[in-house]
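Two records follow; treat each independently.
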Amino acid sequence: MAHTAFSSQFTGSQPLNSTEIRRCILRLRRLATLLDAAFVLPGTRLRWGLDTLIGLLPVAGTMVMAIPSLYIIWEARRLGVPSRILTRMVGNVAVELLADFVPVLGDLVDTVYKANLRNIVLIEQYFGMTVDATGRETSGPH
């Protein structure tokens, strides 16, 4: 299967097996949840993460939070996710980054849009993973 392995040019090692892919994706999901949905706004169902909190710092917060977002995309590339999906992932991050340059609006976009979790869903869909509302895997990569 083409999408269960990636080119050894990125790591200099053997292609990943489905267990390694699953572990990597679950690790990326934990990171994305921390960034986008780790906390609940009291009295609401609204979830927010470190991206919203650190994004409150003008410009510096935006630049700092771009690093883990781009890391998720880099890992997706390393896993062998095709360029058409990587392009969508970059677009998701770009929406948040551009909005972050507008005070207050950027923080609202971070809280609602959740680019990192959107990108994880794209990766999971590509590998045929299904994750329930609690973040538990219900099926793995094929």
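The next record belongs to a different protein.
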Amino acid sequence: MIRLTATGLLFHGCRHPVQIGRGGLSLTKREGDGATPIGRLRIVGLLYRADRLPRPAPWAKPIGPQDLWCDDPGHPAYNQPVRAPFKASHERMARRDPLYDIVLITDWNYPKATPARARRSSCISAAAWATPRQAALRLTAPT
């Protein structure tokens, strides 16, 4: 079992540093509050920077320079991975800093975000700050 706490991701008895939203942990997560929700979330995907890290699990998908994530609640691709060039509001997945070197995608308002559900917030992911050695963490397949 993987457990997210304010001090990191607990997995197999080890604590791994992750980025928690600027709003901390919240039971009442809303779009724009910068918080990370408290709840039971399923891991539905794993992304990683192949140019920086070895593949952390057989089911992981690489992040490349053209990979973006749509964060525009009014766009049909909201909460979906998209490719550059992309005009709507988005976040670049291949960042200069290590924030998105490893990303666990959860089922929080994903993959079928709707305008009514958009108030809950965009897709929640656990972005792990990792060195190549830490990236050797092996994860079980998503359910």
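Discussion point: The helical segments are 115-118. How would you locate this feature using only the token line?
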